[in-house]
Amino acid sequence: MPGLVALKISKRFLSFLSKYCEKDILTITGTNGKTTTAGLAAHILKTADNTVLHNEKGANMLSGIASSLAVSYKPFSKFDYAVLESDEAYLTKLYDYINADYLLVTNLFRDQLDRYGELDTTAKKIQEAIEKNRNLKLFINADDPMLSELGAGNRKIFFGFDNITYKTSLKDSLSPAEAVVCPCKSDFSYEKRYYAHIGKYFCENCGRKRPEPDYRAYAVIYDDYSEIYLKYRPNGEEKELYFKTPLVGLYNAYNALAAISIALELGISHEIIQKSLESYKSVFGRAEKRVIDGKNILIQLIKNPTGASEVLRTVNKNTSKKLLIIINDNYADGRDVSWLWDADFELLKDYPENIIVSGTRAYDMAVRMKYAGFDFSKIEVKNDIKEAIKYALSGINPGEQLLIMPTYTALLEMQKILR
Prior knowledge:
The chain has about 425 residues and is of the alpha/beta class. It has helices spanning about 1-10, 15-20, 35-45, 60-70, 90-95, 115, 120-130, 250-265, 270-280, 305-315, 360-370, 385-395, 410-419; strands at about 20-30, 50-55, 80-85, 100-105, 135-140, 155-165, 190-195, 200, 215-220, 225-230, 240-245, 285-290, 295-300, 320-325, 355-360, 380, 400-405. The strands form three sheets. The chain has a nine-stranded mixed beta sheet. Strands 12-13-17-14-15-16 form a six-stranded mixed beta sheet, sandwiched between helices.
């Protein structure tokens, strides 16, 4: 609401941001991971004693970013940095008002087809935004072939993984691969594929291949944390660093690597970055942990096939004693829920306990679980989200964990209920 009011008073309200930011404006976009990456980057900068403007609630359209500025601004004061998460489709509109110093792009996957269309359309929207700022420095996920052609005339800094080792119960990724082809129209081949179309790719026809990362890493993924061994070349001399993050899953290892890379580029020390990773609190349903009446809740947002599949890979029947899946189909979720059939819910077919489904599309989710091979008699439908949460919590003991996987508007409703 503050952003809507500010933009109503002045359409160019966001253009004032540049006047109050003394160092750099960092923008972050992409399909998955932008909220966590932006949150990590902002937390690292704050831990390094910087003042930071950040749309930390994940409201990433113009009104949400304007709200962060309107609420955070203090007369006669300035920020050191601005860390702004932006919706992919709104990035070009944001750049009508600000000249950012950096743009970090996490990845591109099919998401809300009724809003974005196919991946090429989303990539073109990001490219249109980049063309509005030729001095923009780009941080690019080297392992995503959809991003390699972005910003041909801009300085590009790449981050990526050379190798990944799993120390978890689930090792093989069955995330749906996107239909990504080389600019020469040939299919990409992979030396290593980590999940979906993310990995060390190359084209046998024209020789195009994954760029050599400026920040290249090796990750070890455990059930409840990840280790990152990073190599980079400040001043031409190779340096090796070790980081540990309590965030779970390979997708969060990518988020951490992205935030670490941009922090090192800005001159933040290894010690401060590691301290920040340890003290970072997940926000707004991104591996967010809460405790109610002594019972643990882990909230993992799901919103597209690849993101959901990677979250499902982290489900551990020994730690998550109860599962609640909440599917809505409001505008912010995407009206089209056909993505449920592309996500790898088959990973849950041997889950030993009952699974509760809720939300406006609860029965769609129940049918999806039936076709995933899960025992249909163990699916419980509770359409009302508040009722579903209370029921799920009543089914576990103090110290045990309830895992909740909501879509975006279901998450918003949950926040109110849990408060």
